[in-house]
Amino acid sequence: MSKRTSTAAANGAAAISDASDIKEEPTYDKQKDLLSNEMGHFSLVRAMHLADLITELNGLCGVLSIFSSMRYLIGDPNDHGNIYTALAFLPLGLFFDFFDGKVARWRNKSSMMGQELDSLADLISFGVGPAVVAFAIGIRTPLDHLCLAFFVLCGLTRLARFNVTAQMIPKDSTGKAQYFEGTPIPTSLALDGLMAYWVSNGWIHDAIPGGVWFAGTILEVHPIVVLFMIHGCLMTSKTLHVPKP
């Protein structure tokens, strides 16, 4: 082979290599570009995908649940309408939590913003919302406050860990993660259902199951709040792997 032929072959190989490098560049992210650069009116809204707007409805359900609990606190404690409304908004939030994922896959429009929105909405609907309902029905001593705060912070930590490690969890043939690390935060709806059962039986305020321990002291606490703490520990568990349905 002549020197010229050898040089041409080398140049051709380099061109092919350069072309391969070009193909491997990250794809253009229109949403990220809009969020970073666009300054027009309603630019944030125009940058959001349909799935993102549905995720916002999940967060709305959580906020309305909190407001309903607050309305119960300033109203007649024997009128349970607002507390039932607060409890009902939480599973409605779960509906939107499932639906936004289906829409994102249908439209092939997943994004980092959508992932962050999903976690923040979940924290409101399945972390803060149930804790506020528990407070409203009578789990409200100073030590109860700390226990409920522990539950919410566990949910916050679990969601932050998910956002960081989601890409590292083994995937199945369809690209979905094979399991959850720790129980997903929407499983707090089990506590939601339990509290609805208590309300239906009148087991709230002074009649909360388990009563109150160390009444009148700094250690006054409703032992039933331990259920929230256990759930918080399950959410943050690293060794507990829950298979995805």
UniProtKB/TrEMBL annotation:
Lineage: superkingdom: Eukaryota
UniProt source species: Rhypophila decipiens
Family per similarity comment: Belongs to the CDP-alcohol phosphatidyltransferase class-I family.
Associated pathway: Phospholipid metabolism; phosphatidylethanolamine biosynthesis; phosphatidylethanolamine from CDP-diacylglycerol: step 1/2; Lipid metabolism
Keywords carried by this UniProt record: Endoplasmic reticulum, Lipid biosynthesis, Lipid metabolism, Membrane, Phospholipid biosynthesis, Phospholipid metabolism, Transferase, Transmembrane, Transmembrane helix
Cross-referenced Pfam families: CDP-OH_P_transf
Top-rank EC class of the record's enzyme: transferase
Listed NCBIfam families: pssA
Gene Ontology cellular-component terms listed: endoplasmic reticulum membrane
Any one of the GO BP annotations: phosphatidylserine biosynthetic process
InterPro entries linked: CDP-alcohol_PTase-I, CDP-diaglyc--ser_O-PTrfase, CDP-diaglyc--ser_O-PTrfase_fun, CDP-OH_P_trans, CDP-OH_PTrfase_TM_dom, CDP_ALCOHOL_P_TRANSF_CS
Residues annotated as signal peptide: none
PROSITE patterns linked: CDP_ALCOHOL_P_TRANSF (PS00379)
Catalysed reaction, written as an equation: a CDP-1,2-diacyl-sn-glycerol + L-serine = a 1,2-diacyl-sn-glycero-3-phospho-L-serine + CMP + H(+)
Compartment(s): Endoplasmic reticulum membrane
TM region(s), chain numbering: 53-74, 80-99, 120-137, 212-234
Name assigned to this protein: CDP-diacylglycerol--serine O-phosphatidyltransferase
GO molecular function: CDP-diacylglycerol-serine O-phosphatidyltransferase activity
Entry EC number(s): 2.7.8.8
